[in-house]
Amino acid sequence: MPGLDEPLKKTLGPATAKVLAEQLGLHTVGDLLHHYPRRYAERGELTSLAELHDQLDEHVTVVAQVADARVHTFNGGRGRRLEVTLTDGAGRLQLVFFGSGVHKPHKELLPGTRAMFAGKVGMFNRKLQLSHPAYALLGGGGDGDEAADRDAVDSFAGQLLPIYPACGKLESWKISKAVDAVLPSAGDAVDPLPPALREGRGMLPLPEALEKIHRPRTKADIAQARDRLKWDEAFVLQVALARRRFADSQLPAVPRRPAPGGLLDAFDAKLPFTLTDGQRTVSREIFDDLATEHPMHRLLQGEVGSGKTLVALRAMLAVVDSGGQAAMLAPTEVLAQQHHRSVTEMMGELAEGGMLGGSDLGTKVVLLTGSMGVAARRQALLDLVTGEAGIVIGTHALIEDKVQFHDLGLVVVDEQHRFGVEQRDALRSKGKQPPHLLVMTATPIPRTVAMTVFGDLETSVLDQLPAGRSPIATHVVPAKDKPHFLTRAWERVREEVESGHQAYVVCPRIGDGEDEPKNGRKKVASPEDEAEKRPPLAVLEVAEQLAAGPLAGLAVEVLHGRMDPADKDDVMRRFAAGQVHVLVATTVIEVGVNVPNSTAMVIMDADRFGVSQLHQLRGRVGRGSAPGLCLLVSEMPEASPARARLAAVAATLDGFELSRIDLEQRREGDVLGQAQSGVRSSLRMLAVIEDEEIIAQAREEATRVVRADPELAGLPGLRTALDALLDTERERYLEKG
């Protein structure tokens, strides 16, 4: 009997093993045992065909009954085409076979015959279609490509038919046959759950769970196996994160407490508004962490415009009060410059420490970016190494070797997901002892994603908007169905400008001949996707058309990521000063840009952006006393999934609700991000939205286990599972803190 680490080619042969490795990433017996069925078809119960509309261009497996089969001739009788219609009583699907491939299915696929069919879903004459699908008759029969023998067919004629995630070269029933060959090895599976935990929660032993997930006799078997396997995934991942938190808690750090009557008190005294209850609560959590002798590792997430920058600034001022320095790392020069502007404006004379007219309690706030002039850069570096500058705000330029600090006490990372592990670690290593870390994200994250993606960080949430923030009305503009709506949209922009306000127009790409379409989804051969056959609208083209057409006479300018940094800064300064009426931009304005006089935003090709991204963009308007307006322009048909997404954004301003919708519509891998792709393969059964309770319980159990035995010396099975999880890429995932 092969062990779980044995290569599949020894058990299944080189040809099958090669396809499993190349197409599905399965290399060992253990990999195949953890390739679980996607769903199960019941004998006597036909599979729904209605779901196939959402699976165009994908490989699928269906169980259905032949309703009709007809042979058509063409080319004067020389060509033959077999058309087979399948039904499940609610939906219909067409199969088509040509040429020499007609003969066998014509004999076997008679009306009333029930079978499993596998192929790529296409659309022809507005009908769903599988062209030359492979098939296996249920209750005895064959396979369209002669590759599955009668044993395989009989195995599918059981009570519950497992349907596996498959690929073009390997149908579900062939994978099932391969699983049969390795299933006896399930008895060798090492159980990662501590026995007390498994028994206390009444869960199946791992070998039994693997047996039942692949060859269930009842639906109860499936439910029991899924519960157990979800727990494995959640628990092993949470143990990895708990060990990271434990290791961080053992590191030394300098406690940072604000001085009474110092810089923080002076700043609070000059604020023209009172902090929200949420800001006060989160600040208290942060100050408590800063006062300890171990580094803070905290995630600050919140709604668009909830005042995260103010909370982070107060934390930085507390560290400066204690004699330390604080660094804020921003992902783009536009955002770094915006943060520097807003921080120095909020601090006033307190940001001019040591300068003429500056406050005695003040400190210097310096900007450090890659495009700065030599003299300004040299002065900024000098201010940091001498300690003259208590606060520095910058981009990746902060990470360079020549950047040295006098006493780095706090690192604030804005838009955490945009930075790699090495970049964050390089900045943190510049402290004499590990500095405290505050991670900010402007994208609201569901609790389960926070526990999974940011599971090594404590989480603070700001979900209360400051007083004075205006409501934002959001509407979908169907440009193709109702072109007069788009005409009205430009009239509304002109009206806002004539009222003394400003507007943004956002496009998916730049349009300078070098850039590729962004945020576009994979094209599929569907009549509904005609709108996506053209390239996404571009900043340079749209700006030119607007300036010459519906917005003629207004000051229209562009902003995008490939502009010279000095030009970008100049455009943003003039826009902030009200000299530019309409800014046509890419998503470079997505986060951090704060121009309270901007009241309108038109997002072109809005269906090409994600739900959370649209919410971020919308957050750039309504930041002052005047109400905001966001118009989502799309050429997609009203009944399309893309329009449903836009309708969801228009229906609510609740970013946390939208983040759940966003996650439900995407694979977890999209949410975890490319840097976390190593973890994606470990989440085969766990769904981060649906399984919130399991993840929360697993986190508690993992914390308890790690606290009692940090090295897991008494839990060899868990240690083995952890080693399997922590390959190079997954180690990088865990370096988030």
From TrEMBL:
Stretches the record annotates as Disordered: 509-533
Keywords: ATP-binding, DNA damage, DNA repair, DNA-binding, Helicase, Hydrolase, Nucleotide-binding
Listed SUPFAM superfamilies: Nucleic acid-binding proteins (SSF50249), P-loop containing nucleoside triphosphate hydrolases (SSF52540)
Residue ranges of every copy of the Helicase C-terminal domain listed in the record: 485-664
Ranges for domain Helicase ATP-binding: 289-462
Keyword DNA damage: yes
Domain of life: Bacteria
UniProt xrefs under Pfam families: DEAD (PF00270), Helicase_C (PF00271), RecG_dom3_C (PF19833), tRNA_anti-codon (PF01336)
GO MF entries: helicase activity
NCBIfam families named in the record: PRK10917.2-1 (NF008167)
Identification of the protein by name: ATP-dependent DNA helicase RecG
Organism, as annotated: Streptomyces bambusae
